[in-house]
């Protein structure tokens, strides 16, 4: 039995909805849904809460868990975070380049204006 199937079976054995279980352990219904569909896994704190809630040891709760699947999902999350961080850094760099370019254009315009005004008054 997969971990997500075990979660579904445990929740159904207590006749709970996903929302009710989420309320019991302090997460949203959507989080329970993701765990049960195998899209993500609970963090350690939530595993402890689940094991306490169902009266199981952590070993009983996670036994036969496909560890490679957990690693793959964790790696995907880390990669997404890395991408988001890179995009955020790129946005900051672009913002500063725009500011610097704007200042440079402003200085050039002021110099041109200065020379034009001087040329007009010299005539």
UniProtKB/TrEMBL annotation:
InterPro entries: Cro/C1-type_HTH, Lambda_DNA-bd_dom_sf
GO MF term list: DNA binding
Keywords carried by this UniProt record: DNA-binding, Membrane, Transmembrane, Transmembrane helix
PROSITE patterns: HTH_CROC1 (PS50943)
Database matches in SMART domains: HTH_XRE
CDD domains reported for this sequence: HTH_XRE
The protein's name in its UniProt record: Transcriptional regulator with XRE-family HTH domain
Natural source organism: Parvibacter caecicola
Domain of life: Bacteria
Chain segments annotated as transmembrane: 96-121
Domain HTH cro/C1-type: 7-61
UniProt xrefs under Pfam families: HTH_3 (PF01381)
PANTHER family the UniProt entry points to: HTH-TYPE TRANSCRIPTIONAL REGULATOR IMMR, TRACRIPTIONAL REGULATORY PROTEIN-RELATED-RELATED
């Amino acid at each position: 039995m997969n971990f997500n199937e075990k979660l579904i079976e445990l929740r159904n054995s207590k006749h709970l909805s996903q929302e009710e279980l989420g309320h019991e352990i302090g997460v949203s219904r959507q989080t329970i849904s993701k765990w049960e569909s195998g899209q993500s896994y609970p963090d350690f704190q939530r595993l402890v809460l689940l094991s306490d809630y169902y009266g199981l040891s952590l070993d009983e709760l996670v036994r036969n868990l496909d560890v490679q699947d957990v690693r793959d999902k964790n790696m995907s999350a880390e990669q997404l975070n890395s991408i988001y961080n890179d995009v955020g850094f790129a946005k900051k760099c672009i913002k500063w380049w725009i500011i610097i370019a704007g200042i440079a254009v402003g200085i050039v315009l002021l110099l041109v204006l200065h020379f034009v005004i001087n040329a007009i008054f010299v005539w």
